[in-house]
Predict the 3D structure of the following.
Amino acid sequence: MRSLVAVSSEEIPERLAAALDGSGPALLPTAPGDPAPPSLTGPVKEEIALVVATSGSTGQPKGVLLSAAALRASASATHARLGGPGTWLLALSAHHIAGVQVLIRSLLAGSDAGIADTSQGFRPDAFASAAHAVLDRPGRHYTSLVPTQLVRLLSDGGAGLEALTGFDGVLLGGAATPAELLEQARAAGVAAITTYGMSETCGGCVYDGVPLDGVRVRLGEDGRISLSGPVLASGYRGAANEAFAEGWFHTNDLGRFEPDGRLTVLGRADDMIITGGVNVAPALVERVLCAEPDVLEACVLGLPHPEWGQLVAAVVVPAEPGAPPSPERLRALVSSQLGGPFAPKRIAVVAALPLRGPGKVDRRALAEMLISHDVISR
């Protein structure tokens, strides 16, 4: 067995190499000032290099057991897809898998990662300063962001966006990237690449809908996504392992294959809204809403309803704080493109969406807000 130590985000860069090569203990990354859950501590098997806590959408974080081999396989496959190793900029917290992988890819590339100062939150000016230091080095240059960071860089439009266009690859993950946001970024010259994956797959393992080398994707009869390949975790600590079976990880996400074979992720199965007997995928409605110039971000969720079972509700962030979009126009837009049952019966306008984990919208907090407070526009 191998010892496991809890480390803060700031400690990870200096201790990661020893965790990967076995000369040091395995690491349990923690958020600054956040103690490690007792259920995740204790010795691990020799091959385990990291134990990454999930974001705890169910309220109980699970420890994902990641071997050094799986982590290296993920980093190598990423470089192969992007066009070779390069210098990376870390703009995410290192206690999430996406941030850790930036550091691992840097180790494999033999290059120290640049690190953006996020101690005061994500700021375009701080990103620009750290980016220029990375871009001044020879070779290829990469970074990894969550969609909300990309939104801020595009909205600011200054030195941060200019620096972002200098990267050879900008990975977007942690949450779904709206199609309109992706188009806007690419039109601005950003080499944006959407990623799909999770801690259980050492981070993103499907890029722009195409699996990385060695990764396999299949869909169940209900559309649930299963993933396989050398990037899979070794299971969970502190939780049951039913999701891992016969070399596959069975996610709780729904997807479909497009005619060209690319995977489109429709969202989590437990986020699916059933209203009047009709299944409504929130991601489809969110894409229509976010295509509106007046809408910066949107989250769609189901609220209890005595007649329909659930009603479709939408929470939107306006592109201009003083000019919220018309709820009637948004409903008509969704109805015309997806059908009447998909149109939000309730629409709330907020200044920002609450987040949990690496850029994921906290749907539970939004639902509680909508139910507890009269902030819904009819």
Observations:
- The chain is about 30% helix and 30% strand.
- The two ends are 59 Å apart (CA to CA).
- The mean pLDDT is 91.
- The CA atoms of residues 121 and 250 lie 34 Å apart.
